[in-house]
Amino acid sequence: MTSSPNLDQLSPNQLRVLAAQLLSQVDTMGKKINRDQTVIEKQTHEIAQLKRLKFAKRSEQMNPEQASLLDDLIDTDIAAIEAELQALQIAPEATEEKLRPKRTALPAEFPRTLIHHEPDNTHRPCGCALKRIGEDVSEKLDYTPGVFTVERHVRGKWVCDNCETLIQAPVPPQVIDKGIPTSGLLAHVMIAKFADHLPLYRQESILGRAGLAIPRSTLAQWVGVTGVQLQPLVDALREVVLGQQIIHADETPVQMLMPGTKKTHRSYVWSYATSQFSDVAAVVYDFSPSRAGEHARDFLQDWNGKLVCDDFGGYKASFELGVTEIGCMAHARRKFFELHATNKSTLAEQALRYIQLLYEIEREVRDLEPDLRRRIRQEKAVPVKDRLHAWMNAQRDLVPEGSAISRALDYSLKRWAALSRYLDDGAVPIDNNWAEVRHEVA
Question: Which residues have a Cβ under 8 Å from the Cβ of 286 and sit 6 or more positions away?
Fold first, then answer.
């Protein structure tokens, strides 16, 4: 253990050296404390985020009736309390009537089966006959699962006795030659597998309960052949999408079973869609065994339009070849929403308020022509975007390096040019949600 020096025995020079050493140690310890606090804040945010993803709801909407953390005016709180008290004073009967869900009418195109219910005897004991004066009608929804039908194709043979010529109608084209499934059954198998995520072994069991012994190996062959036959449609969709100047792109991980290993491998499905403002609505999906950027480049090839996407590095090679990057405001917003949801960050809420103003302007111009949409964006959205940019720069100088709020700010500031390009083109959307919705549907 080192003993403390006797200050009375030290010379002035030694005191200055000792003071400098102590100041250096204090400075070092201060920096260490700041680093530790940043790490603790980061890990606390990550733990809270993981808990929210596992246990909380996924919606990123902010409740418009939620009191702002930045607004602590007493009048606002009193008004909220009075509104709650007024709501509690509503009559119980009116409340129950309001909360009771309304039953929607069953679709008119559904086939109807009429079932009549009449009394067994329409004569009274007095001898009088009852007269029908009206009726009550109610509808019930029924479902019959696994209804299969069989198409029996009969091709007549016609012969000429004089020239001995045999004539017969040609076999209608089928997706699978000499196979038993019709296009309707193949469509059902494909939709069940890829849209409803129903594996083939479960479809095999469902068919078995209906009395059809179709093994999954046969179902797998049907899926493979159908995929090959659908390739011209995929190629046509790809041409339609790449024929547009603005494209949405997004990638989603899927688990692929590796043959012979009984293990799954992380693969990806990429979606490419036309813009929500385009007159042409099309989306095409491209499977790849990895998330490497070369897969996006192989799909886009020499296309050099405007690509709406997130900050995934796989698109960077395309940007270097002439593709214009359009940033996704929803991804930038999500960084701040996560902070607001996990630790009620006032800085994150202020950013959300700014971004909310931008989305309110987008709702206003959603159905307008591109030129008018651009003009209103320039008049209303550009000033909001400039204030948001100035606010972000000012806050970035104040927050510690490596903190969660600094990473959220850096995400937007580093991509500010890409996030702002939608303001200069009325045909460009503010975010990439159009493609993400199509990925969820798929």
Answer: 269, 270, 271, 272, 295, 299
